[in-house]
Amino acid sequence: MSFPRQRFRRLRAHETLRRMVRETIFSTEDLIYPLFLKEGAEGKTEISSMPGVYHHSLDTLSVELEEVTALGIPAVLLFGLPRVKDEMGSEAYSPHGIVQRGVKAIKASFPNLMVITDICLCAYTSHGHCGIIRNGRVDNDQTLGILQEIALSHAAAGADMVAPSDMMDGRVGVLRTALDSNGYGELPLMSYAAKYASHFYGPFREAADSSPRFGDRKSYQMDPANAQEALREIALDIEEGADIIMVKPALAYLDIIFRAKQTFGHPLAAFSVSGEYAMVKAAAMRDMLEEKNIIMEILQSIKRAGADLIITYCAKEAAEVLREQ
What is this structure's pTM? Predict the structure, then answer.
């Protein structure tokens, strides 16, 4: 038996050649960094379940963003924690809300940084659900009007993109209509199109103080067992005007990311969520794995599956590695 003429190791022998033939190119430009703004916070406070991630006051935000921009990270995704919650989540659409003020502050000091805002009610409602409660259930259609108010208040504050994460049926269409008819026709919309009812959200719910006070979110977030449904959700959001679609979580749903990209070819984001981050941090703190190498391998897998953009709490660590390389 003759030795095979095709030797794959020829293209692996030299670092420069490995880079030249690399199929998946992952860069800092692909990263979006999530930030938590907390009304009434004094300084910044580390979130216990997410080491290295903080609740920020408006006063500490500029220091954080100096680091973010110095690393070349092009965009942030803002989440807000109000001082006061009510059944309607009214602080979410207040012109003086924490996110609205945060957007104005960021754009005043960092005009070239893209500011994306999360559109949802869970962190603002006293019951912790993503919509208005009527007769013990989330009222989809009544919630849509509130989401419009939130999006318009963020647009008025100067947001560069809005991202509805509520998973109400029809919300992309009504938000697109509201933005277009109020002079924000050029404001892009990134839809959490396939957002699963995942157990990977635990640390985020602590960070955003957004755990449901009763029941769960399985009636409006997707069943983790379903894939075809995700494609139907994505198709509808594209039809309703989503400029970017998102799959959330990322690591356990790489197959959904792949299917979505192959099916639609639409700009695609993936959210590497709090539970994914917390697992890596916990293992690294116990010297079970090499943190930065694992972060890069995970993020590269998400990119390889088809994501154009990756929302990740590891954005700064990834940017540092990419800069070193």
Answer: 0.95
